[in-house]
Amino acid sequence: MKAAKNILIAFLCSGMLLSTGCSAFQGMSKSGQNAIIGGTAGGAVGAGIGALIGGGKGTWIGALIGSAIGAGAGAAVGHQMDKQKSELEKELADVKSQVDQNTNEINNIKVETVKDSNNLNAIKVVLGDAILFKTGSSVLTPAADAALSKIAYNLNQNPKTFATIVGNTDNTGGLELNMQLSQQRANAVMNYLISQGVAASRLKAIGDGPNNPIVPNTTAAGRAQNRRVDIYITANEQMINEAQMGQ
After folding, report:
1. Which pTM value belongs to this model?
2. Strands 110-115 and 121-128
3. CA torsion angle 74 79 80 86 (round to 10)
4. pLDDT, tens digit, for every residue of 111-156?
């Protein structure tokens, strides 16, 4: 059994994880490793692997379930998350039609479907920092209030979800400063959502600095895209368990 586990770990590290992800896996607790291995051995290959974000930070998106999740349960969760995504898109569209300030940035808000640590559908909201903050600041702007109030409303209407808030920067300036600023910005977004009634237990704020660029930092336009806050909305254990019971 131990030999098989070691083989699986080697496979995960060599074939499915980046070297930074492998370090994160090896640095996890035994229970955390077993959860990953259990999900992989149970057929959920890639669950919790594709959702690893952050350069070596080992940030797992969503409530990691150790056992494989059946197709029926996955479809049920996916239906709920797709419905929430559609509602959020409509709510943010209202902001785009109402707010004149930072119109271009508001129009550039992205709402995407991604996979969480259980390979279930999740929602990713990408907010450029120009809509949220002034340069070098972690104080939210009025335009940020307009957008985040809609996200808070959506979360309050869908209580069986978590939200992981990740602050990102470009690679200009010192690493320590960027890490600090990205954490402060993630905290500012989280605290705003809490002020709008979202339970703190449903939220997590992470400062990832320049570790997770979406485009190269070689141009001003690229660096502007990398300066952002990502909000990952994922099913919580209650939603997953209810979906499993009903399949």
Report:
1. 0.77
2. antiparallel
3. 140
4. 999 999 888 999 999 998 888 998 889 999 888 888 999 999 999 9
> 30, exposed or middle or buried, with CB in 10 Å at 0-12, 13-18, 19+?
exposed
With tokens 């995960």, the residue in question is 12
Sheet holding 161-168, edge to edge: 110-115, 121-128, 228-235, 161-168, 203-207
Specify the CATH number for the domain of residue 141. 3.30.1330.60
Rounded to 10 degrees, the C-alpha dihedral 12/45/205/172 comes to 50
- Residue 40 in domain: no
In the structure, what pLDDT confidence band is assigned to residue 100 with cuts at 50, 70 and 90?
Answer: low
- Concatenating the DSSP letter of every residue in 39-87 gives HHHTT-TTTTTTT-BSTTT-B--S---SSPPPHHHHHHHHHHHHHHHHH
> What are 47-68's pLDDT values in tens digits?
343 344 544 444 578 877 767 7
Answer yes or no: is pLDDT of 171 > 70.
yes
Rounded distance between C-alpha atoms, residue 194 and residue 59, angstroms = 21
Domain count, the chain: 1
Cross-strand pairs, 114: 122
Report the candidate in 171, 183, 180 with the shortest Cα–Cα distance to residue 220.
Answer: 171
* 3-state percent helix, strand, coil for the chain, nearest multiple of 5: 50, 15, 30
In-domain check, residue 150: yes
Longest dimension (CA), the chain: 62
Higher pLDDT, 24 or 56: 24
| Residue 166 belongs to domain spanning | 71-246
Whether residue 212 is contained in a domain is answered as: yes
